[in-house]
Amino acid sequence: MRHILLIFSVFLCALSANAQEYDEYFIDKTLRVDYIFSGGNESQSIALDQLNQLPLWAGRRHNLPEVLRGGNGQIKMMDAQSGKCIYADAFSTLFQEWQTTDEAKTVRKSFENSYLLPYPKSKVVIEVSLRNKHGEYISAIKHTVDPTDILIKKAGLEHVPAYTAIHQGGTIDKCVNVAIIAEGYTADEMKKFREHAAVACQAILAHSPFNTMKEKFNFYAVETVSENSGVSVPRENKWQKTVFGSHFDTFYSDRYLTTTNVKDIHNAIAGIPYAHIIILANTDVYGGGGIFNAYTLTTTGHPNFKPVVVHEFGHSFAGLADEYYYENDTFSDTYPLTVEPWEPNITTLTNFFAKWKNMLLPDTPIPTDIKSAGQYKVGVYEGAGYSSKGIYRPAVDCRMKTNTCKDFCPVCQRAIEQLVKFYTE
Q1: Dist CA 331 CA 1 (whole Å)
Q2: Fewer CB atoms inside 10 Å of the end CB: C or N, the chain?
Q3: Could you report the per-residue pLDDT of 130-145, keeping only the tens digit for each?
Q4: Would the pLDDT of 362 be above 50?
């Protein structure tokens, strides 16, 4: 009995420490920092665009100065007086993907990016670092923010779109808060959107380990209205007037559906309790995209709507990599074979010890022959991260590999569970 009481006491102390840490440095509002990322394939720079105050904080209140996923970039907030890191987060960007394209070799471009931080009580220093091709995080911008600055714009106090909780696992401060927002739905199509949002939510929560952690999630359907129905398809010269200006053919890839209007997204939902974003596009054309700690964007009219939204949420929420590959590709600029990817579900074997080695049976060969898959539920199978050689995945099939697989592989399931607990416990 004394042992149980001791464990309970330690648990309460941990909760109290988290609460004290948050209350010591922050108030219950959000500091949204908007940046412009620009450059070409060999250069990158970041400029501060706008500071915004949102009316509440819907992000994590635990493990504040830590990151669990490295991401392609990191943002840190330091107390200006002591220099102590008081909050950190990781991210990926469409800009960094674009840098790997042929177009980036001949022209410079700029991309919007916005980050949500707890609102500080005192002056802070914010630093953004970007991961280079060697896996190192290099500082790209560092600036001071005074929370009393009169030029910090107060957003989300008016013109908040209608929204409903389609799944309420708990209170905002104890859950992962996800806004599901409408793209290409007119005012007359909002009933249809709410139905699609419910389907997306149900599809995600039906997969392990989300299905055992429902109490740790809140999903909100946000009725963001477009002038036109549908989304833009440039290859068909079809341009629609939609609230977020999304389009297919991103980087000239037919099925890649994204938007570069990141500020429009955040401005539209500034008064909503959110930390993660799913954008539902009103079209039956197959496609989508998911960017870690940015957004999931997927189409709702295609028969593969449900598996795709789950797959893309695996990218945007959990930082999972694609486990599929193309037979004729032997190398990808996205993943240099001499650097260990930051994503938890693929490896170049450069630092496999930090990945899922502890989940292998003792006699599992590394790499694992696909012909032996029946013996090893978790292995090290070649072909992942778009490359048929040199990059390895943990299972023969997974939700991050194909639309026909019914669930995430064990490694992805563990990674998701770890992240949910990191955010909420």
Answers
A1: 58
A2: N
A3: 999 899 999 999 999 9
A4: yes
pLDDT at 385 over 60: yes
Phi, psi values for residue 334, rounded to 5°: -65, -35
Comparing C-alpha atoms, which of 239, 244, 288 is closest to residue 269?
A: 244
Q: In whole angstroms, give the CA distance from residue 90 to residue 295.
A: 13
By the 8 A CB rule, do 332 and 111 touch? no
DSSP strand pairing (85-91 vs 163-168): unpaired
Q: Rounded distance, CA 89 to CA 70, Å?
A: 9
- Domains, in order of start, for the chain: 20-154 (2.60.40.3250), 163-320 (3.40.390.10)
The answer to whether residue 299 scores a pLDDT higher than 60 is: yes
- Beginning with the edge strand found earlier in the chain, give each strand of the sheet holding 276-281 in spatial order: 163-168, 217-222, 176-183, 276-281, 295-299, 288-291
The Cα 348–Cα 345 span in angstroms is 11
- The Cβ-side half-sphere exposure at 184, using a 13 Å CA radius, reads 28
Cβ-contact 425, 417 below 8 angstroms: no
Nearest Cα to Cα of residue 363 among 351, 347, 376, 345: 376
Residue located via tokens 């008081």: 86
215-224, pLDDT tens digit by residue?
999 999 999 9
CA pair distance 344, 346, nearest whole angstrom: 6
- Model confidence pLDDT, tens digit, residues 87-103: 999 999 999 999 999 99
Instruction: State residue 20's pLDDT score.
Output: 66
Q: Are the C-beta atoms of 350 and 342 separated by less than 8 Å?
A: no
User: How do 137-145 and 153-154 pair as beta strands?
Assistant: unpaired
How many other C-beta atoms are found inside a 10 Å radius of the C-beta of residue 412? Answer: 29
Q: Other CB atoms closer than 10 Å to residue 238's CB: what's the count? A: 13
Distance, in Å, from the CA atom of 289 to the CA atom of 147, rounded to the nearest integer, reads 34
Tell me the pLDDT of the chain averaged across its residues.
Answer: 94
Q: Between the CA of residue 284 and those of 113, 179, 187, what are the distances in Å? A: 28, 22, 19
Q: What are phi and psi of 92, to 5 degrees?
A: -130, 165
Exposed / middle / buried, residue 10 (Cβ in 10 Å: 0-12, 13-18, 19+): exposed
